[in-house]
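Repro:
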Amino acid sequence: MKLQLIRNATLKLEYAGRTVLIDPYFADKHSLPSFTGRSPNPMVELPIAIEDILEGVEMVIVSHLHTDHFDDVAMQRVPKHLPLFCQPGDEETIRGAGFSNVTPLAGTAIWRGLTLTRREGSHGLGPVVELMGHVMGFTLEAAEEPSVYWAGDTVLYSPVTDVIAASTPDVIVTHSCGARWDGDLIVMDAAETVAVCEAAPDAIVIATHMEALDHATISREDLRHVADAKGIAASRLLIPADGETVAVGRP
């Protein structure tokens, strides 16, 4: 398995001979409004050209319709014929943008040897969830590949730890920037990411969704510092830079 972090939550995954694009966010630097007044978003440019990101992509997953996960540029540039999986309720909006092969992922789907299973997420806890709306994560499995749990835009709460305990994933992808909305945590921060590492001592955790948006509160350096203090080895918690590719073999 090869996982390339593009920027924010956008990943390009080579898995079981297939190439999957997750949560495409292609906006130019500073082309979208600020969330907090600190900076327009995104705060950094894409590390590679859009045409290079899209090269070879065979399937797309969109976890939810926040602009930092599926923006207008991506809606224009991602080929409309590609199979696209989304959470139930988002399919009509995506079809309305011209996509012709959209499947809402309500449970488990099998696509060309890949088993994709929807997992619950909570974009914060308490009243902020009403503002943030529904989100999803997913697990991904295929023969001869490490199992993957992509947690998505969620805080650490019991359904996440239940997935970890029940599916014992080999790789866990977290969103770890500690983003806050009106003071409420809406994705994992450093402490919650470290807690994921502790809950899955045999897994490799890959922290993403960092240093791209102005409502983030945790940097890559912050996360590494907290992990080091808790004794989490750098080989167990990977914190890739934008554009970096991580390879994980079958356990």
